[in-house]
Amino acid sequence: MKYAASDTPSPSRQSPRIALLACVAALFGAALFSTAPLAARPTEPSASDRQIAMTVRYFMERQHLSRHPIDDEISQRGLDAFLKTLDPWKLYFYQSDVDEFMTQRNQLDDLFRRGDIRFAYTVFSRFLARVDERVATATEWVDRPHDFTVDEEMIRDRDEAHYPKSPEEADDRWRKRVKFDLLTQIADKSEIDEVRENGIDPEVLTEARDKIRKRYNSLRKRWDQTSDDELMELYLTSITSGFDPHSSYMSPSTLENFNIQMRLELDGIGASLRGVDGYTEVADVIAGGAADEHGKLKKGDQIIGVGQGTGGELTDIVDMKLNDVVKLIRGKRGTTVRLEVKPVDNPKEIKVYTITRDRIELKNQEARSTVIEWGAKPSGQPYKLGVIHLPSFYMDMDGARAGLPDFRSTTRDVRRLLEGFNRDGVDAVVIDLRFNGGGSLTESVNMTGLFIDRGPVVQVKGTDGRTQPYDDPEPGMVWSGPLAVLTNKFSASASEIFAGAIQDYGRGIVIGDESTHGKGTVQQLYDLGDRLFGLANRPSMGALKMTIQQFYRPGGDSTQNRGVLADVTVPSITDHLDGIAESDMDFAMAFDRVRPLRHDRFAMMTPELGAELQRMSMERIAASEDFAEDTTRIRRYEEQKDDKTVTLNLIEYLTEREELDVDKEQEEIGEKLSDTDKPVYDMDEHYNQEALSIVVDYLKLLKENKVAVAR
């Protein structure tokens, strides 16, 4: 089964990938199907690990799109990526450690060919030793006095950081790290005028120290709980990412979470979880799930113990790795789990909830719709706009392979919503693909077919250099009226296939950031158990997600590294985030073109129409106080994000945060990604209002230009 990968990088320069990966962890943190034993620190690779490594090597060399051999170059890239994965800020390893590892810089490819991954264990063992040392140093610095009035800075651009050359240098690096962490905690609880007048509140400082101390100790314990499977995933993905940023190895648990994402259902309690300073916190309670029906577990509650059945012993999960907590809580429907909870509204009172697991459907991750009345027709009646929010292009792969007639499908769900819009007599349809990271290539093609009569949707080129078109499989259109597509820099892969085809056909208007993410490659998922042992009684060995093709729009352009350019842009901070676009990623495939295919050209979008819509939108935006504030925030963000250092002076830090809190901006974007309870389309947001105003302008200009629109 082929699919366009859905992972996109984090907006954060200060903590790359952390914010968005935390959102993914929260979304799928409602726990696995069995109660596997908890992980201990890795010891040595097994025979199965060797088999997995050799299988990954075999497929990467023979079927990856680049046809790049596993050679010294891949070895060097893999080592760099592995060290960056473990120690991105260069806080743990000494330079002497790295120099020692670098003696193997050109040997990892030779070891990999033999399935030998012992080097990963050597590096990780040293890393754990350094973590123990650094956490001991950090906890000492937590309790020492710090002068927050002196003018000193800490490097916050990891590209500018270097490995410490001595224990003294490492100690000073951690002094600044601890001081910064304390400073951010103090700043969250302090007002600048109060600090100027009275200094730091002693209670605030004590609370900050307690929290940071717990955070560091929890960090050490979580690394100690790394499993062999997780280390294998880190190392093999470091090697495969040397080919391109989207090829990776998935451990069995990662593969299971991927399958949950695609089929939008699982067995469990229906609560998403997140790790916060060693505690497991309820990030969300899924509507209609077992926990929601139980009625007592709430967002913000801390789970501190888990027991199986009505009488099983409660296991203390404080400082336990989130994945292991997930394994304890998730389980087969009909079974019970007991949760020991500190309620958010009364943390001093410990309660135990017994919840019966059930099938959980991730309803808020499927296509949802609403009809919004906006603007005014010449008759005075409002326009009716049908909005579909689509978080991903999902498909139940197992159900599809099994030939189930009702397997979960994006296209089937969107068709149903469009048929409802037809009955309601809406004037235009808006497909909201903001933050849609992609998913199934098949679903993006089939869904595009709901809006065109027939013809090619995408072209795909593989290792042989030949292009193959993927056509709309069914004649006719479910929706033939005016269409708008909302995108941003987080719209990737399958989202770009859909938006690009709509644009090439002139079928509708694309509104949003200047361009989408720019992921124009196709990955294939190889279940290694299937490949090695067949379907019957196969062991769980994870999967290889490998780039095998590049896709192109009907007009011949790839979206790779370039994305889909919006017809009308609306100012947004997402358009200015670094480290998000495909072009920002290491070893991304290059943009190119192939021969365009013959396809229909609708008269529902022209460059002239787009230019007029942009002019009308800019006039409204120029008169908007909300967008004026956005412009100021964007300008300040651009100024701050290029700073290589951050001040450790509390007054200066608070002053900068009053102007703009970069971390807060990124946190809000992360919350939008992970929020499972948000409305289909929030009309309280001025951005959303402007997008619909553009759609109304579009309808009026279509009528004035006498464009025939059938519904």
TrEMBL record:
State if Heme is listed as a keyword. no
GO cellular-component terms in the record?
Answer: outer membrane-bounded periplasmic space
Domain PDZ: from-to ranges: 259-330
Q: Which domain of life is it from?
A: Bacteria
Which SUPFAM superfamilies does this chain map to? ClpP/crotonase, PDZ domain-like
Please give one Gene Ontology molecular function term for this protein.
serine-type endopeptidase activity
Question: GO biological process: any one?
Answer: proteolysis
**Mind telling me which Pfam families this protein's record contains?**
DUF3340, PDZ, Peptidase_S41, TSP_NTD
* Cross-referenced InterPro entries: ClpP/crotonase-like_dom_sf (IPR029045), PDZ (IPR001478), PDZ_sf (IPR036034), Peptidase_S41A (IPR004447), Tail-specific_protease (IPR005151), Tail_Prtase_C (IPR020992), TSP_N (IPR040573)
Keyword tags = Hydrolase, Protease, Serine protease
Q: What is its EC number?
A: 3.4.21.102
Q: What does the sequence similarity comment in the record state about its family?
A: Belongs to the peptidase S41A family.
| Full protein name | Tail-specific protease
Q: Could you tell me which species this protein originates from? A: Pseudobythopirellula maris
Task: Tell me the organism's taxonomic lineage.
Answer: Bacteria, Pseudomonadati, Planctomycetota, Planctomycetia, Pirellulales
